[in-house]
Design goal:
Elements (H helix, E strand, L loop, with lengths): L3 E5 L12 H13 L3 E4 L7 H6 L1 H13 L5 E4 L10 H5 L3 H5 L4 E4 L4 H9 L5 E2 L3 H5 L8 H13 L4 E2 L4 E3 L16 E3 L4 E4 L3 E10 H6 L9 H5 L8 H4 L3 E5 L7 H13 L8 E5 L7 H11 L6 E5 L10 E2 L3 E5 L4 E4 L2
Parallel strand pairs: 1-2, 1-3, 3-4, 4-5, 10-11, 11-12, 12-13
Antiparallel strand pairs: 5-14, 6-16, 7-8, 9-13, 10-15, 15-16
Helix pairs in contact: 12-13
GO molecular function: hydrolase activity
Keywords: Hydrolase
Protein name: S66 peptidase family protein
């Protein structure tokens, strides 16, 4: 069972800003009500500009979280878009390798990069939720579907299975203090959708936010992302991808179909779709470009591997938690993904 949660800001320093103080306080109270001790790493609350200017501070916090024997779970505050800049401070002198211990690591969005860093060193991690996005949900409680997976992870340090949510929620437009206690607009969801291939497939899952993965191959967002990511071999080799299931989901930026296709094509160029056992795709936020994305997936992924769409993971709410590195057994007919212990 998890007893102490160590919170890190590895991408954006949003958690340290005054405009989220009401969310911060709410999240702390929720974790404490679960019987958890909350520990903020030294630089986690230093704010957006400070952490943007000092990636070495973010790296130090991750290293300290692994070194602190009291911390059972490392929980990312939020995503962002430049956690790749931690690479030199974690890998140039094997800094991360030297302190790595078996702990629960949970985050999503740009944290995709951190998941790949930890995968490089053999750590199994968990994808799909973060402190601000989930624990600090402004409703009177965490969204029930999200809360159930978070509680399971706290109680057991694992996730046994994932089933679809019965509902999905529209993204909030107001995160101010006035929104405290307000409910999200909800809609009935339709479950997992098999776009192609066999309904049953298995393998360990790896992947994350499509835009973050694209940054490894493209300098459109940051001029140095390729220069830092590729020498450090952040994107796993084809040998490593052999037999795995790729998880993809898109951010709140809601990429237009043309960009979505471009990002998938960049992945295709690696040869990954020739060696995977399947692809899992998260529901797009507010179902924007839902039909277009499905069509593009089937056009770009022209191998016969299965594609399972509309998972409740990533930027659309509510969010499940997906274990990386554990054998997953996907059954689209039964609408379940089961994980081996």
């Amino acid at each position: 069972m998890i007893k102490t949660v160590g919170i890190v800001s590895l991408s954006s320093g949003t958690l340290g800003e005054d405009f989220v103080k009401h969310e911060l306080d709410l999240g702390i109270q929720r974790l404490e009500d679960m019987g958890l001790t909350v520990s903020f790493m030294p630089h986690a609350l230093e704010g957006i500009e400070e952490l943007k200017a000092h990636p070495e501070k973010r790296a130090k916090d991750l290293l300290q979280a692994f070194q602190d024997d009291a911390v059972d779970m490392i929980l990312c505050a939020i995503g962002g878009d430049d956690t790749y800049r931690l690479l030199p401070y974690l890998f140039e002198d094997d800094q991360l390798k030297q302190v790595l211990t078996s702990k629960v690591f949970l985050g999503f969005s740009d944290t995709t990069m951190n998941h790949l860093m930890l995968h490089k060193l053999g750590l199994k991690t968990f994808y799909g939720q973060s402190f601000l996005a989930d624990v600090c949900e402004l409703d009177e409680e965490m969204l029930p579907y999200s809360a159930a997976y978070f509680q399971e992870l706290v109680d057991t340090r694992c996730i046994r299975e994932i089933r679809p949510s019965q509902v999905w929620y529209e993204a909030r437009e107001d995160y101010s203090e006035q929104a405290l206690g307000t409910k999200r607009v909800s809609h009935r969801d339709r479950g997992f959708e098999l776009l192609q291939g066999p309904a049953q497939f298995s393998g360990p899952i790896l992947g994350g936010c499509l835009e973050s993965l694209f940054d490894i191959f493209d300098n459109s967002r940051y001029a140095d992302s390729i220069d830092l990511c590729q020498p450090n071999q952040l994107f796993p080799s084809l040998e490593d991808w052999q037999g795995k299931i790729l998880l993809l989901e898109t951010s709140e930026e809601r990429p237009e179909p043309e960009l979505y296709r471009k990002m998938l094509e960049a992945l295709k160029q690696t040869g990954i779709f020739e060696v995977l056992n399947g692809v899992l795709v998260g529901k797009p936020e507010d179902e924007i470009y839902d039909a277009e994305y499905k069509k593009i997936l089937q056009e770009v992924i022209d191998t016969d591997i299965p594609i399972l769409y509309n998972l409740n993971v990533g930027h659309a709410t509510p969010r499940a938690i997906v274990p990386f590195g554990v054998i997953a057994h996907v059954d689209a007919d039964e609408q379940v993904i089961r994980f081996e212990e």
